[in-house]
C-alpha cells in the first residue's frame, strides 16, 4: 500500500490575481502543512466549487475544505499577505486502476478520478480504444500520471501495486433489458478481471460497478476465496448512486438544500432490493404515505428512467460515474488516514440473514471498519415490510452469483 503523507500547501505571489481567488496576499512564498485526517474531515464526496475563494489544483476542494485550509494560516501570515493567489498542492500518493475505462461509465469516471489530489497514478484498462482516452486525460494539469493498457496481455501490468481497483467493465442495460439479462455476459467479465486482481494486487480495495451488482459481488468473493486472498473488508459493491439519487429526489421534493440531505439506502442494487430509509433521512422531514411510496418507487426505478429517456442510446453513465468517483475519493481518504469516512455500500454483512447486504459502513485504512446497524432499528411499518419483501430476491441473486463462480475453474 502507498504510504500516508500529509499534504503541503503554499501561498505564493502572483502578478495578475483574478476575482475567483482569495484576497489573501503575501510578499514572500510560505508553506503550510496539515494532516488531511484533521482538516478534510468535513469533505463528503464531490462538491461544487462555484463559491471557492482559493484557487485549487483540484475541484474536489469545496467550501469546507478551503475554510479548513484558511484556518491553518497563522494570524501573522495573514497580516503579511497582500494581493496574491492561494495555490494548493497536495502530495498525491495512491494508485488507482479503472477496468473498463473506455466505456460510457469508465471515461467520465476516469476524468473525475484524475481530478483527485490523492491520486499519483491512474491506470486505464479496456479491451480496445483506451489509448486515446488516456492521451486525452493526460493533458489535464492534475498531479496523477495516466497510463493505458489494452487487452488481456497488458492487464497484469495495469494492476501492479494498485491501491484501488474500480470495475465498471461490462455491457450496459438496453431498453427492455433487466439487470438479470446482463448476468451471463457480465458475470464472465467480472470473474476474469477478479482473477487477475487476485494475482497482482490482492490487498487492493475492489469496487464493483458491473451489473447485476447483487450477483457480481458474490462472484468476486468466490473467485478471491478460490485464489486464497479474499478479504471481505476490501470488497465493495458500489451502491452510491442509489444514495445520490435518494438525496437528490428528496431534496427536490421537499425543497431542501441538497448539500445537507443524507438518505441511507440499504438492501441491494436492483429494483425492489433498493430500499431508501426515508425515515432516517437527515435533515428529518415529514412525508405522507403517498410521498414515501412515490419517492421509494422512483429511487428503485431511476435506472430504468434513464434507460428510457436515452431511448436505446445508453444507460445511467454520467450519474454512475459521479457516484463511483465519490466512493473512490472516500476510499482514498480512508486509506490516507481520515477517521471520519462513511458511505453506503454492498458488502459481506451480518446485519440480516443474507451474506451480502448494502448499508452504511465506516471506512478505514484496512477497508470496512464497521457496519452501522443502528439505521435498521426502529423502521417504519412500510420500511419493515419492504425490507422483508426484498430479501427473497436478493437471496436468489446472491445464490446465482455463488453458483456461477463455483462452477468455474479458477487458475491457481
UniProtKB/TrEMBL annotation:
Known catalytic reactions: (S)-malate + NAD(+) = oxaloacetate + NADH + H(+)
User: Its quaternary structure?
Assistant: Homodimer.
Q: Does the keyword Oxidoreductase apply?
A: yes
Q: What is its EC number?
A: 1.1.1.37
- Name of this chain's protein: malate dehydrogenase
- What is the top-level taxon of the source organism? Eukaryota
* Keyword Secreted in record: no
Q: What class of enzyme is it?
A: oxidoreductase
Question: Which Gene Ontology cellular component annotation is one that this UniProt entry carries?
Answer: cytoplasm
PANTHER family named among the record's database cross-references: MALATE AND LACTATE DEHYDROGENASE, MALATE DEHYDROGENASE, MITOCHONDRIAL
Residue ranges occupied by any Lactate/malate dehydrogenase N-terminal domain in the UniProt entry: 95-237
Q: Which family does it belong to?
A: Belongs to the LDH/MDH superfamily. MDH type 1 family.
GO process terms (BP) = malate metabolic process; tricarboxylic acid cycle
Q: Which organism is it from?
A: Erythranthe guttata (Yellow monkey flower)
Which residue range or ranges hold the Lactate/malate dehydrogenase C-terminal domain? 239-404
What keywords sit in the KW lines? NAD, Oxidoreductase, Tricarboxylic acid cycle
Q: List the molecular function annotations (GO) for this entry.
A: L-malate dehydrogenase (NAD+) activity
